[in-house]
Structures are given as structure tokens and as C-alpha cells.
Specification:
The structure is a homodimer. The model of chain A has no long low-confidence stretch (mean pLDDT about 95). Chain A is built from 19 helices and 30 strands. Chain A is about 25% helix and about 25% strand. In chain A, the strands form 8 sheets. Chain A has a 7-stranded mixed sheet with strand order 3-5-1-12-9-10-11, with helices on both faces. Chain A is α+β, with helices and mostly antiparallel strands and about 750 residues long. Chains A and B meet through strand 19, strand 20, strand 21 and strand 25 of A and strand 19, strand 20, strand 21 and strand 25 of B.
Chain lengths: ~750, ~750
């Protein structure tokens, strides 16, 4: 099925279908789940960055008022295997591991009648530690004499390498070469909704309410963990308050909640505190990246060399960052080498475009420097190197690429040339503009099954396994079905994220929810339509091909027939359509592209930077809902400002502890940090790789944001901030170093 | 699809799949639903059998502590139309009607912070009544000068008449004619679970948890009531604690709960008390029935004349009782005439086999009397008149009839001849045996849609719209899918009765749940199997026709392949099958048949009757689960003993009030009233009218029970109790009348 040519619902700026309950307070999140006889749980965590737990004495805690269960490494279930090595696929730790490798690692858990009693009991647990030397800085950890996070050493595997062409020859052929080294901060997810679960057993059946981006991933994890059939594990994802990647995988807290529930034969609620969530539910790890780019005088790239040092904290985890270096620009000679190192900090988890903003920070600032050195407009330089095939994927053609159009239309709507011309770098308060491009490497696909049901009064129901993280998934899915069935949006209800009542889909992440779950929703609706038309055709004596649907009615020539008047439908009362996600075309590469522009004002005396305005020109294929599309773009920009300018997990090197593990000291961007003016230019190259024409937007919206701001900062000040964050103190230091305080 | 020939799961005596939670207290019934900020509601009801409400003063109630809303006929929504006339389809009353036509009719409702506050406020409502004369006895109500329940008179429509052949000629040809007049009591449903609802609005969407036998009926009723699309009304049926027909339709309490929730913008729980449930959620109304049967000397029936006077209380409702008189026995000449009359009592609702036990009580006692007069064994008399076609349905053939086999095998297993021979009628303590046959007139059909899902670990999920009233539906549905998919029963989970997540089916009632919802469940599972085999066939290079399923594995010759090893399945993660109930064969009549035997001991001095033992021989087609089958039969027998011997709503003629509206004074049979010995003989004539071979069991199990006991009483005492109940006092009176106290 080809994408719609002239949709009437899809593409409109429809407010969220669940906006009322989200804004009005009636939406029921996991935190709101209260079950009769439910216990509350809390976890004791290691205060040390690296320590051996010699002894855990829970005897006093067990006697505390209201305490119903305490588990620790003293218990058989506490010894169950936990973290899995992504290479060997073998477990490398246990639930309550006697070796705690970062501050916040789990030592024991308590279930009690009240949350306060649980915390009191946690404090009454006595632990004997053998504190070991620690290392929390990747550049320290890679040194030969660094404290060892793991006995076998701090480098889990050899560096990841990639190369094509002949990079040395490429640099030799270059007229201009630039090279910079960059540092990115460790960013913490901290979604509005904390991480937590409610677990309940009924006989051998486990039911869990979870703050998750993917109920089926949690279901599978719990089924494997507790050795249960999938059908006996029901995971429900109520309303979600954001995840950003930190809620993709099974949390240890979920397993602990289920263990405590099994032990006590009562439901157990276990929510992490905000402070805990800073320690142990993931982060975007810091990177040190060196980028060297060579180009001809006309701007044609001849070579890119990309070197990185990354970490994933104390436990092994997948991460490389170089994809954009390989694929964003046409370049015959590319080489990358990325090393990973263990440090004694909480383990990384995927974070909105994992790896991509880091690479972009380095790559796009280097491109900016290259443009300057070439004396070219940065937009022009990028336009000169727009690729038409994916060099990273065997030169397969892109399904579509709107990168050039994003650059051109974005620059036009932003008033790039004019703004650049009026950039002001003298005096204490300066102004400048910057641009950065980006791409995102995934575009959804199977598996996903969606069911659509139509009722005789012309209303309908969507049954999907996906969550709505707050991104507007439910709204877009509703629009897809409304479009296909000619049913008013307000007459469509939706069920989501419940392994007991909905069908498998992958977790919502990677900008692939709409592009994975939308196509089968459309297929399911089309199947409903087909069945309805067969029934109607027979009764109305009109060929199915001449029937249409509008406003919940069947249109047959001049006649408008209510659906319920179709007797075969009324007799059956429901038409069910099942849609299964088809694979993407195998001979294409599907990438969303992004170009963002920023204008900043810098007070060189105070070091204050204001992002005056930003514009995002995005090729994410069709804008399914113009309103939530804009929301995503603007939200991505603000998160990018956080990544580049305000946020940073601060490790105390001497104690190995996080010293800003709370919302007061960890500086999330607020409304005052957001650009006063934002604009969004959707570029739609009419992609046909799925039946929607959409390619995914969530991640690309944040990938180039920090880089665009950094380039604007450079444009204003002539000083390049290579090491994030662009905080007041860092800005002052950088300007001081150049003797440029205005 | 033909019924299975050699099932391995179906037919076995499997304990209920939800037995643990039901017995262990973790099952969540509607009464257990507690929502944040939920209000509690109570209803003020008329204490009078017939009165005009002149004025309702709620001013004091509104000021009571905790009260959040009071509604009455003073409010616009209180004037909304309610009861619908089944003939004219027009509303005949309003929610809070100024004319209360029976004790218990609704006058006002209160929502308050606590249940106690709601009741306190109800008591503070001041009502001015104009009390009118009333009539509660049908035989009084039909007299010309009786108080009028409705202005247009107490007979809502002309008598319902049926006739075939020439009845007068039939009686003229008869060698023997018997005639008796019978009275049956008014039986109250009183399921263990009370009637109630929890209603919550979110914007314009209404969600209701309801004690209902059919969530889709409630959904439709609420959608019509509140003028909402079906998709915006979600009705959830949690675990059910019995309904017996009293929970088939939308209750006024449900609408009131939703009204109060809309008014207060808070969730509202409204449960009736046990006492209220005796007044206003239905009953099996009393009947006065006269049966006259003529027969040849050899027992061949020549004519049946059936006359009835019934009631449905104060509001019109469908009810005729004569179906068995028309169709149970071969008889060329049958005439029936049934009159209905209004009385000032609560309205009838369908009650397990509505009309059938009443008719059976009269018909089967008359057959017993006929056998005696003919000098024939009552089993023989019935065997002589077994029909092969449905005379009530245009002489269409039965799909199958096991009536003769029920009579023969039942008599054999009961030891009928021996027991009859040893019947003892002298002395103060006498013994006797009785038999009665019956049939049930419905056998399910469309609409019903069931979805089955299979997971790669070989576990499965059933998604059905039906409730499980306590009858074992979930267990039987699980067995059907286990049979079809070769998956262990314990690896199948089930979702039910939720209009948001399951598909349309008719309410569970009429013995048609398994026969309506079971066939599409099997079809859905077969569809899953077909899809799986297509995937497996391609991978294993074995034709689909040579594949089988067993223990959650695919059997391909010698190979046993785990389902998850089928790559196409693993890539899709779920296989979905949709089953839609096909119509029954149009050229057949599908009836379950029943024959029950009873042996009683009567102490003629005290009037005590003990039912020593009973046996039910049932042709309900295939016994889907031998354990729940027996449960149904034994439960039906005990309910029949209640109908014939212990239960009775007692109306006080002078006040028009129910004087035993509670479980203390209304005598439900207890374990001590149940037969000490029960047996069950499933007769399976291998029906092929649906793909299960089942015909339905719930109602036939109770239809002939009271009659069999009454006939046994006669056999023991020589006295026929025509007017139920066979209570101690009635027995003493009847024996006294015959001068037979032993």
C-alpha cells in the first residue's frame, strides 16, 4: 500500500487525544497503581564507588515495625545472575552482587507496610565493606596503573574500527585540514516520571505495572528470569511520563519487586527516588572525541578521521558513536577508531539518539571550523557534500533524502544569510548564528502487530502494544485509523501497552514507534475497510471499488449509509482487522535527516549565553501530526541545549560519588534556557518505504541542536567551546584563555 | 470444521483455571474496585407498592456531611426515560418516576464521600406520597375491580396463543385424560455477588465496572443513554459472582452511578444492598398453570392443553412458558393460552431457563399423573412419546436428540426400577422416586468474535468478550484452545469481558456461552495453527498437512521443533487468529435435553422431606469439561430444590411489601437441603451443529429438578403438591387434606 496522496486527517495539527487526562490529572501512571494489601519497597545501595560487601546483617531490619521481607545476597534469589555481557552473553554479576562497582549498586531490599517503614528498615541494615580504589574518569581509567574496575582490566574489548578508502591518501590530497578534540558531558535521563514497578503474583502468574517504553521487553525479561511462559507474565504500561531510553530494558528494581511480592504473597510497589535515578538507571556517557577532516578548496571532503574514547560505566554495554562520521557527508575516505573503558559509575543506557549528539558535537563543530578555514558559508559547505547513497551501508541508495532541502529551506526560513551578515562580535554583548546537520540511523520495521476494530455505530478501537511515552503516539495512531476508515478522531478509542490484551511490538525508542506501529495500524484499518466494503457491496449492490467512507458513513454514489445499516455488520457487531508490520524494502537505506539553526547572544563580561532563536528543518518524511511534530522538534532542541550548555553529572573523583544527584544541583534546561523563538520546517520528500511516508523524528530532533548552538557561539565570539558544557564558568574560562572578554 | 473425534484435553475433568484466585480471595470483583477520590452512592426507594410522589425535598440531604450530589425527579436527568415497553418500544417510565408502582422503585440517589454518609443523606430526604391502592397477587389483579397498576388496565396485551392440530378432537380420541392446576412461587435470583457498578468519566468517555453477564449489552445501553459512540463507553466485567439472568440487562443503578459521576466529576461506586436486590433486580415470577393431557391406552399422547396466568410485576416484560408443552413430547394436537397481568411488585428478569421450570413443574407432574392413571411406568410413558422433529419449529429435525438415551441410561444408572419397587408408602416415614424430563430451547449462535494469540515460547492467550459467571467458561475456552493448538492448559492465559479490549459477544445466558463463544475460539486457534504451519512448512520443508502440534511443540515426523525455532514466527513474535461465530445450520433445531431422577424420604408426622439422591442424565452434546459439567448439573438440581421446596418471595397483601427480603427469611437451599447423593450421566449424541459438538447445559440442569422431586413426593405419599413450595407447612397441610399423616 502506497502512502496516502491527499490525506484529510493525517498531517493536521491535532491536539493530543490523551491531552485532557494528562493535563487534568486523571491519567493513571504506574505510580498511581494502588492495590489492596500492597507493600512498599526500598533498596539499600552501596555508598562506595568500588567495594566488596563482606557481610550484610539484616537481622535488625527484619524486626522493624511493618517489615514483611528483606532480601540480600544472603538469600538464594539474591544470588541470581544479572548483568549480561553483550559479547559473551554470559552474566557478569548477580542481583545483589558482593562486589559493588559503583555508587548506587544494589545491596539489599525491604518490603514493608509503608514506604517510611521500608526506608527505616533499609537504614537499619548493617553492611561491612572492604572499600577498594576506584576510578571514575575515562581518561584516568585507561591508564595502565589505574584502579581496576574488573580484574581482567578496564578495557572490555579491542577498539571498534571502521575504515573505507584510503584516509592517509585523502588527507594528502586535501587543500585544507582541520582537527579538534572534544569532550561531552555525562547526561542523565531524569524523565518527569520516576522509575518503578508494581508486582503481583496470582499463583504462578505474575502481573507487573511498569514505567517502561516496552512492555513486551519487560515481559520477556521477567519470563526468562522467573522461568514462566510468556502467557503467564502480564506487563502493563499505564500512562508514561517520559523515558528517553532509560526505560527500554528490564530494571533490577522490577525483578526485586517481583521477588518481594513472591516472598510476601502480596503486591509490592517499588519506586526509585529521584536521587537513586541519578545513580543507576542509565545515562548518556561522556565521550572524548577527536575529529580530523580534510577538504579540497571547493569544499569537497577528501578524508575524515574519527577517534573516540567512551565509557559505559561499570558494566559492559553496547556503544559506538561514529555513524554520522561515516554517513552524513559524501566522503570516500573515512576511518574511525573508538575505545571503551570501564569506570566505577552507573551503567549507560540508550539516551535519545544514543551516541549521535556526541558525534555531532564533534563532527559538526569541526565542519564549522573547516568552513571558516575554507572561507565558505557553512551551509554551502554542507550542501557540497550531500550524499545520495548510504556509504555506511554498502552504498545502497537512500529511500529518500531531504538533507539538501533541509539546508536550503531551513537557511531561507531562518534568514541565515541576513542573520550571518548582522552577526556582531565587538563589544561586551555579541551575537552569532550557527548551523549543524545530522542524520538518524534507524527507521523501524517488524515485528509489530496492531488490531483495529470497527463498531456498527461508526466508532472504532485501536489495540496496539506500543506505549505513548508522551510523544503523541496515541494521537498519531488515531489519525492513521481515522484517515483510513473515514471515522471522526473523537470516535476512536485506543488500548495500548498491555501484554495481556495487546500484541507484540518492540519497545518505543529509536524514533521508530510511528514507523513500526503506524504501518500495521493502517493495514489493520484497511483490512477492516475491505471486510466492511464486501458486506456493503453485497447489500447495496454497488461494487466495493465504488464505495468510500466519510464521517463514519459509507458513501455509495449519492447515498450515505450508516454503517449499522449494513445488516451483515450489524449481525456480527464488530469487524476486526489484524495488521502485521511488513519488512522495509531490502534494497534501500531509510534515514531521517535534520538541519538546525541557532542564533545566540553572549555577554562576554558575565559569560551568560542566551539562545535567542532556533529553527529545525527536518526530513522525517511525512509530518504525521503537525502539532506533535513541532513539539518533538522544540523538545529536542531544548534537550540539546541541556546536553551542550546546562547539564552534567559531576563525579567527585576522590569519593567516586555523584555530587549533583538531584534536580536542584543537576541543571536541566528550564523555560528560561529555551530559545525565545522557535520555528520548524518539515521537509517531506514523499518517502515510500512504508505505507505512511514517515521516517521517524524523535531522535533527529535533538541530534544537531547543541552543535548548532556551539557554532553560533563561535560565530559570536570567535572562541570554540570544544568541551561541554557551555556553562557560564566554562565560557568565562574559554574567553579568558583567548583574552576576549569584550 | 467438524467436532474433534478423539480430543485429549476437551472432555476431561479439569479444575477451573481461575479456581485459585476465586477460592483464595485474590480475584477482583466489581465490589473490589476502588478508585482514587471515589464517591459512594445510595438510592432512596419507595416504601409503598403504589404511590404518587408529590414532592421530593432534598435540601436537608444536600447539606449533610460528605454529600456531593443528590438527584431526583427534580433534576432534568432524573426525568430521562427508562423502562421500554417490549411491544411499542416506547418508554413507559422515567429514571425517577413520580409514580412508583412497586416497593423499591427509585425516588432519589445520593453520592457522598463514604457509604455511611450516603445512607444518612438518603434518610434525610423528605418525600410526600399519595398512596394508592395496590395489588400484588396475579389472581387478584386480573379481576375487573382490582386496583389498576396502569391506567389502561392490568392486562398489557391479549393472551399469547398457540395451537396445532385439533385439540378438542385429540381429547375426544383419548382413552385417558388428566388435568391439574399448579402454582409456582416467585423465586429471587440472589446471586452471591450483589448488583453494582463503578462509573468514571474522563472527558466525554465513560468507563464502568459492572456486575454483568454481558459487558457489550451494558456498553450499548449506556451509549444509547448518554448518546456516546460505542468506542467511548468502556464496560469492564471483572470476576463475576453469579447472575442467573438478573445481570443480563443495564441496571438503573448503573445509569444512576454514571449520572452521579458526571455530576460530581468523580468516580462513583453504587452497590445495592442484599435487601434492595430482593426488591428490584428481577425475579422468576409466579405462575398459575393448568395442564390437561389426553392419551391412548398405550400412552400415545393425543392432546395437550396448556393455560397459564403469569405476571412480570409492575412493568411490561417478555415472558411465556409453554415451550416444553409444545415441543418436549410428540403430540399432534397442542393448544396453549397464556395471560399476563401487572401487579405492584418488582419487575421480572430472566432467571435460569426463564419460564421453563414453571412449565416443567406443571407438565411433568401432569405426565406423572397420566402415567399413574395409565398404569404405566413414567419412564416408559415418556419413551413412548419422544419426538424426532421439533413440532414447535415447523417440524424441522433436531440436530440430535438424546432424550430417549437420557431416559434409558438415566433409569439404568439410577436403578429406577429397583428403587420404584422398593418405594415405601406405609408408616410415618415413606420413600418414593420420581422422574421428570425437560428440554431447553436455545443453542447459541452469532454474533461472537474471539481472538487467539500464540507466542514463540508455545504459550497462548485467549481474548473473549464473554464473562465467566462462575460456570467455568474460562476453563472450557482454555481447553478448546489447548486442544486445537497442542499447548498445555497452564500455558494459556485469558482475557475476558472488557469492551475496550475484547470483542463483541451476546451476554452470557441461555446456556449459550460455550456454544456461542467456543466455536469462534476454536476457529481462531485453527487460524493460528494454519499460519504457524505455513511458516513451519516452509522452514522445515515438510507439507503443512504432515505437521502436528503437541506439548507446545511442532511435530514433523520424528522431529519435535520448538515453536520459537520457526524463524518467521520468532521474527513476528505473535500469531493472531480471529474467529467469528458462524450461523447454526438453518435446517435443524438444536435443543439440549434433560432427564432427572429423584428419591425422597418424607416424614409424614413432621412434614419434613429429604431429597436422598438425584441423578441427572443430560444430552447437552459433548461434555466439554466433565468436572464443570457435573458442577452445573448438581448446582441446577439444588436450585431446582429451592424452586420447588424451599424458596418463595412472600408478599404482604395488605401493605404490598416483600416481608422476607433478606437471606435469613428467604430460604435458599443450603448444603443440608441438597441431596446426600448425586450422580450425573452425560449423554453425547455426537452433535455436529457446531465445531465443538456441545449444545449447552446451564439451564437444562435445573429445568426438571423440582418436578422430579415433586413426582417422588407423590410416589412416596400418594399426595400431589401442585402448589409450590413443598415446604414443611405445605406438606403437612396437603397430607392433612388427604388425611394421610402416617
Amino acid at each position: 500500500m502506497k502512502p496516502w496522496e491527499n490525506p484529510t486527517v493525517v498531517g493536521k495539527p491535532l491536539p493530543r487525544v490523551d491531552g485532557n487526562e494528562r493535563a487534568g490529572g486523571t491519567a493513571r501512571y504506574t505510580m498511581d497503581v494502588r492495590l489492596p494489601r500492597m507493600l512498599h519497597a526500598a533498596i539499600l545501595r552501596s555508598p562506595h564507588a568500588n567495594a566488596i560487601v563482606k557481610k550484610v546483617d539484616t537481622s535488625e531490619a527484619e524486626k522493624m515495625p511493618g517489615v514483611r521481607a528483606v532480601i540480600s545476597m544472603n538469600d538464594p534469589e539474591g544470588k541470581a545472575p544479572w548483568a549480561i555481557h553483550p559479547g559473551t552473553r554470559k552474566p557478569v554479576s548477580q542481583i545483589f552482587d558482593p562486589h559493588c562497582r559503583y555508587q548506587g549498586e544494589e545491596i539489599a531490599a525491604v518490603a514493608a507496610e509503608t514506604q517510611q517503614q521500608a526506608w527505616d528498615a533499609v537504614r537499619a541494615i548493617r553492611v561491612e565493606y572492604e572499600v577498594l580504589p576506584h576510578v571514575v574518569d575515562p581518561e584516568e581509567a585507561i591508564k595502565p596503573d589505574a584502579p581496576k574496575v574488573w580484574e581482567e582490566g578496564n578495557q572490555p574489548w579491542p577498539p571498534a574500527k571502521y575504515s573505507r578508502g584510503d584516509v592517509d591518501k585523502g588527507f594528502a590530497e586535501a587543500d585544507v585540514v582541520v582537527e579538534h578534540t572534544f569532550r561531552t558531558i555525562c547526561q542523565i535521563h531524569t524523565p518527569t516520571e520516576l522509575h518503578g514497578s508494581v508486582a503481583r503474583w496470582r499463583g504462578n502468574r505474575l502481573q507487573v505495572w511498569d514505567t517502561t517504553q516496552g512492555v513486551f521487553a519487560i515481559q520477556r525479561g521477567l519470563a526468562e528470569w522467573f522461568k514462566l511462559p510468556l502467557a503467564d507474565v502480564r506487563v502493563i504500561g499505564p500512562y508514561m511520563g517520559g523515558g528517553f531510553g532509560s526505560k527500554l530494558e528490564l530494571g533490577k528494581y522490577t525483578v526485586i519487586a517481583a521477588m518481594l511480592a513472591r516472598r510476601t504473597k502480596r503486591p509490592v510497589k517499588l519506586f526509585l527516588t529521584r536521587e537513586e535515578s541519578f545513580l543507576c538507571v542509565g545515562n548518556r556517557p561522556p565521550h572524548i572525541l577527536t575529529v580530523k577532516i580534510g577538504a579540497k578548496k571547493d569544499g569537497t571532503l577528501t578524508a575524515i578521521d574519527y577517534r573516540g574514547l567512551g565509557t559505559f560505566g561499570a558494566y559492559p554495554n553496547w556503544t559506538t558513536t561514529d555513524y554520522q562520521a561515516r554517513d552524513l557527508y559524501k566522503c570516500p575516505n573515512v576511518r574511525s577508531e573508538e575505545r571503551q573503558v570501564y569506570v566505577n559509575t552507573g551503567t549507560a543506557r540508550p539516551f535519545r539518539a544514543p551516541g549521535f549528539p556526541q558525534c555531532n558535537w564533534a563532527l559538526e563543530q569541526t565542519m564549522d571550523a573547516l568552513a571558516e578555514k575554507l572561507g565558505m558559508d557553512p551551509v554551502e559547505l554542507r550542501l557540497r557534500n550531500v550524499p545520495t547513497v548510504s556509504q555506511a551501508e554498502g552504498n545502497k541508495p537512500y529511500s529518500t533524502t531531504g538533507l539538501a532541502e533541509c539546508l536550503r529551506r531551513g537557511a531561507e526560513e531562518f534568514g541565515w544569510k541576513e542573520a550571518r551578515a548582522r552577526a556582531k562580535s565587538d563589544g561586551p554583548v555579541v551575537r552569532g548564528v550557527g548551523v549543524a546537520a545530522g542524520l538518524w540511523g534507524y527507521a523501524g520495521g517488524p515485528p509489530s502487530t496492531v488490531i483495529v476494530k470497527l463498531y456498527p455505530d461508526g466508532s472504532a478501537n485501536i489495540n496496539m502494544g506500543a506505549a505513548d511515552l508522551g510523544t503523541g503516539t496515541k494521537t498519531v495512531m488515531t489519525m492513521i485509523v481515522a484517515e483510513e476508515l473515514g471515522v471522526p478522531v473523537e470516535n476512536i478509542s485506543i488500548e495500548w501497552a498491555d501484554t495481556g490484551t495487546t500484541q507484540y511490538t518492540e519497545p518505543s525508542g529509536g524514533s521508530k514507534t510511528v514507523v513500526s506501529d503506524g504501518p500495521p495500524a493502517r493495514d489493520a484499518a484497511a483490512e477492516v475497510r475491505k471486510q466492511l466494503f464486501e458486506m456493503a457491496s453485497e447489500q447495496l449492490k454497488v461494487p466495493a471499488s465504488e464505495l468510500a467512507l466519510k464521517d463514519g458513513k459509507i458513501i455509495a454514489g449519492d447515498r450515505q449509509v450508516a454503517m449499522g445499516e449494513i445488516r451483515a455488520f450489524a449481525e456480527q457487531q464488530v469487524i476486526v482487522g489484524v495488521g502485521t508490520r511488513k519488512p522495509n524494502p531490502p534494497d534501500q537505506v531509510i534515514h531521517p535527516f535534520a538541519v538546525q539553526f541557532a542564533e545566540v547572544e553572549v555577554n562576554k563580561r558575565t559569560g551568560e549565553m542566551k539562545v535567542l532563536r532556533m529553527l529545525g528543518a527536518h526530513d522525517s518524511g511525512r509530518a504525521m501530526n503537525l502539532l506533535t511534530y513541532r513539539n518533538q522538534v522544540f523538545g529536542g532542541m531544548v534537550m540539546g541545549i541541556g546536553f551542550g550548555a546546562t547539564e552534567r553529572r559531576i563525579m567527585d573523583a576522590s569519593s567516586g560519588r555523584v555530587i549533583n544527584a538531584n534536580w536542584h544541583d543537576y541543571k536541566l534546561p528550564t523555560a528560561l534556557d529555551a530559545p525565545a523563538e522557535v520555528a520548524c520546517v518539515p521537509v517531506d520528500p514523499k518517502d515510500e518505504s512504508n505505507n505512511l511516508g514517515a521516517k521517524g523524528l524523535g531522535e533527529p530532533a535533538t541530534i544537531p541542536s547543541a552543535s548548532a548552538v556551539a557554532n553560533a557561539f563561535y560565530n559570536a565570539t570567535g572562541v570554540r567551546i570544544t568541551d561541554a558544557p557551555m556553562s557560564t564558568s566554562n565560557i568565562v574560562a574559554a574567553l579568558n584563555a583567548k583574552g576576549n572578554r569584550g
